[in-house]
Amino acid sequence: MNFIDTADAYGPETNELLIAEALYPYPKGLVIATKGGQTRPRPGQWEQNGRPEYLAQAVNKSLKRLKLERIDLYQLHRIDRKVQVEESLGALKALPTVNFFDCCFFTDICHKHMWLQQCSIAN
Predict the structure, then answer these.
(1) In whole angstroms, what is the distance from residue 105 CA to residue 74 CA?
(2) How far is CA 66 from CA 43, 46, 70, 117, in A?
(3) Homologous superfamily assigned to 3-122
(4) 10 among known catalytic residues
(5) pLDDT at residue number 123
(6) Where are the domains of the chain?
(7) Total-model pTM
(8) Which of 8, 33, 50, 109 sits CB 3.0–4.6 Å from 88 for a disulfide?
(9) pLDDT over 90 for what percent of the chain?
(10) Residue 7: left if φ>0, alpha if ψ -120 to 50, beta else—which one?
(11) Which of 10, 24, 54, 74 is catalytic?
(12) Phi, psi of 33 (to 5 degrees)
């Protein structure tokens, strides 16, 4: 095994804790991916949150739960239509704990947002 994919919304938060409990210290070469930007306020209810301050907080909480200093692959669950995608990307790009240029992805986007993501990375 060399790749684990999780998310802060799974559980919520429980899955990241279980991964750290079961596998930490992590074996060399293991890539850990996690996702953020989607909250689960109640069972069966999902809400997007792409606000920069929320994403920064979500990354820091994931780092703590996973016992990591850096996230190899950070993904946004969904685009928050109330926030400009450039703002969400800019927040992630500014974090030293996420390797944004190599490893920041959306898990569910349309072609328009894909173009915006490429423009944001280029700047």
Answers:
(1) 7
(2) 23, 22, 10, 26
(3) NADP-dependent oxidoreductase domain (3.20.20.100)
(4) yes
(5) 42
(6) 3-122
(7) 0.80
(8) 50
(9) 44
(10) beta
(11) 10
(12) -110, 145
